[in-house]
Hints:
The chain has about 525 residues and is an alpha+beta fold. About 35% of the residues lie in helices and about 25% in strands. The chain has 2 domains: about 5-170, CATH 2.40.50.140; about 190-320 and about 405-505, BirA Bifunctional Protein, domain 2 (2-Layer Sandwich). It is built from 15 helices and 18 strands. Helix 10 packs across helix 12 (about 380-390). It is elongated, with a radius of gyration of 29 Å. It starts with 14 loop residues before the first helix and ends in a 20-residue tail after the last helix.
Amino acid sequence: MQDKRDNPVTDSKPEQVIEADENRLIAERRAKLKALREAGPAYPNHFRPSITADELHARFGDEQHWTQQALAESGERFALAGRMMSRRIMGKASFVHIQDGSGERIQLYLRRDDLPQGVYQAFKGWDIGDIVGAEGSLMRTRTGELSLSADKLELLAKSLRPLPEKWHGLTDQETRYRRRYVDLIVNPQVRETFVRRSQVIRAIRGFLDRRGFLEVETPMMHHIPGGATARPFVTHHNALDLDLYLRVAPELHLKRLVVGGLERVYEINRNFRNEGVSTRHNPEFTMLEFYWAHADFNDLMDLTERMLTKVVAELPDQDGLVVDYQGQPIDFGRFRRLSVLEAVAEQIPDEDLVSLRNRDRLRALCSARDISFEQGWGWGRLLMELFDVLVEPKLVQPTFITGYPVEVSPLSRRNDEDPEIADRFELFIAGREIANGFSELNDPEDQAERFSAQVAEREAGDAEAMHYDHDYVRALEYGMPPTAGEGIGIDRLVMLLTDSPSIRDVLLFPYLRPEAEG
């Protein structure tokens, strides 16, 4: 029975009607599968493609060079395997478009008299979505379309569920995230997003490898959550009867390696933070963290600027260093630098850099703008509340923000000239944090004091404050060279470079609530 979705209609239907149609089509396809099982192996695994659709188009796409006559004279044969996406059955001949692992489509030309006996008749009972294998020689149709004229054809995998209708496609956002496998089939731009993601990560690896950084792996389950102020996920090791924490950051383990003499290390890692979900946040996410001995935060800013410029320039199909993000041009050829104090002062012209370090004045400024705060906060945390509200959303072009208060930088080295300021920066693009880096704190006594302060904050109710990591302090006591370290949010960077408005668009399987049964 021919699947009516070969010729989808554009008229919208009530949801109940669509569901009933789909259930009927699934039942029909299951009946076909039963018949296939009775005839022999229903899911064979002996067919091997010799080429992909994109390779065929690349080699033979030039119609002026590869004319019909030139294709016929070449005598080459090819085997292709792919999912049947459309077809036109015209009596004794048919045209079929298949889509293979390259993401490209190519046309098959099928004639009853060219195929083994019975195959063409069987093909007419196959369905859109079925995976088929075909072998034959290349030709051009009257319209010039490159096609495979097949003399062998096999059904490799039966599709029991119909693909979304051709004209409507898979458009419901949550369904797309939940059924990413279908999204990848029917929405070509989605595939391109994840190809671009892979290209970005590969370019970053190459950049760091060429500069002597060593890629390493560190544990994902920790006895103590550390390396970031974040609420962790808790798990349990049954054999050891021990509670463990999923990694919130690899920082403290990577710096242990620097102590051990691995002076340039990086990890592209999965982190887990038990926090909210939004267009910019997912409970698990990918970070690049790297550490560089005998360097400071200024060196990191220089390196980061060069790295991101290089990554953007190397991306296929990228023309220049300007990337369009949600209608806003982002220029990766120009990076600005200014301190937190300078950035806040730009938004409150009546205040100077001295008044913005006055605790009482900052409280008044927050109150006047309905920014909530706690009485025990120092000037540094109050300043950052103003920064988050007044400055961060306006940092559209690449901007390094420096001069963070030590109060909000528990792992950063104090500035030699101003001990209340950390040698730290964050990189903002399109109104969001992309990177966080600093000159590392390598004074074990100072680190011990800051851990103690974090413990006090936890005991006062701050669930995101850090634990005291005795082993990390012990590692520092062996001596860590002056070091700079940085983390870059891969997901957010990929959002920028693929013009994706939500982090879920750049995660193959973003977090969603369990689907309701029934």
